[in-house]
Amino acid sequence: MSAVRERLTDGLYGLGWGTVKKLPEPVAVRLGRTIADATWKRRGPLVRRLEANYARVVPGASPERLAELSRAGMRSYLRYWMESFRLPAWSEERIRTGFAAKDLHHLTDGLASGRGVILALPHLANWDLAGAWVTTELKIPFTTVAERLKPETLYDRFVAYREGLGMEVLPHSGGSAFGTLARRLRDGGLVCLVADRDLSASGVQVDFFGEPTRMPAGPALLAQQTGALLLPVTLWYDDSPVMRGRVHPPIEVPGTGTRAEKASVMTQALADAFATGIADHPEDWHMLQRLWLADLDPAKSPGPGSEKGRP
User: Fold this and answer.
1) Quick check: 207 and 246 in contact, CB under 8 A?
2) Residue 207: CB partners within 8 Å, gap ≥ 6?
3) 3-state SS of the chain: helix, strand, coil percent to 5?
4) CA atoms of 288 and 310, how far apart (whole Å)
5) Which residues pair with 206 in a beta bridge?
6) Are 171 and 145 in contact (CB under 8 A)?
7) What is the pLDDT of residues 136-152, one digit of tens each?
8) Lowest-pLDDT range, 99-108, 195-204, 298-307?
9) Are the CB atoms for 224 and 185 separated by under 8 Å?
């Protein structure tokens, strides 16, 4: 990314956080939908990639059905951004009433037992809102990891934004994140990780909607090393202002096998849980990047490329 483009990107995000958060909520909702529909009508590379990904999730879907899904998907994606730009200005009451979770006992019972807990999520709906709800409604602090974005000032904006919502944020690169996460878990803490896309090129190969891809091994390895509970979480929107979510049953560490073999089994179980939530609400899966191995250039890693989505 050129220096000029980096400055423009940073400036646009700064404008979003500085301006959108001041808008009345109905105005922000309409603005998000207008931008989503205009983007969808242009049928640029992100929209086409979204449809290609949805074609895996909804096999046999007609071109008309995929177009409907991609339009709904862009509206969901822009809802995420409008909410994220406005979250720092939301009252505690608005955050508390903005999310409702099913089977929350998996999380609360796990923490009450003294074990650390790892929440692993795909890019569904708005995990920042779910995280803000955890720190606000449950009063539970947690640690997460953020992809290092370009320019550095944009990464700093995202870190400041998430820290302002009560999260401890570690950089994905640098090599020290795993050790810090393990310490938090051994102390009985909570770690939240977005885990449906491998950024390291060293992830675990899994079957995902019938085709191979790679997902990060980190959640499974952390659970093995620390004894923490590994819980998949899926999120979705409905027609109300309230985002919904479900905490899935824990993924157990296999009793036999090598460390790598156990991680493979656990990551596949995580992928299966993600697939359940994504299949139920495909339009809320904001995967605007190439994901499946068949779509990736074998000479390149599946790390961040020219197709940017959510950090």
Assistant:
1) no
2) 268, 271
3) 50, 15, 30
4) 8
5) 213
6) yes
7) 999 999 999 987 656 66
8) 298-307
9) no
**CA 156 to CA 14: how far, in whole Å?**
11
Rg, the chain, Cα only: 19
Residue of 261, 289, 238 lying closest to 79 (CA atoms) = 238
Q: Taking the CB of residue 175, how many other CB atoms lie within 10 A of it?
A: 7
The answer to whether the CB of 234 falls within 8 A of the CB of 124 is: yes
DSSP state of 242: -
pLDDT tens track for 189-214: 999 999 999 977 779 999 999 999 99
Q: Which of 187, 175, 179, 208 is nearest to 59 (CA)?
A: 208
* Chain centre to alpha carbon of residue 53: 16
Please, what is the Cα angle at 291 between 159 and 79, to 5 degrees? 50
- What is the reported pTM? 0.90
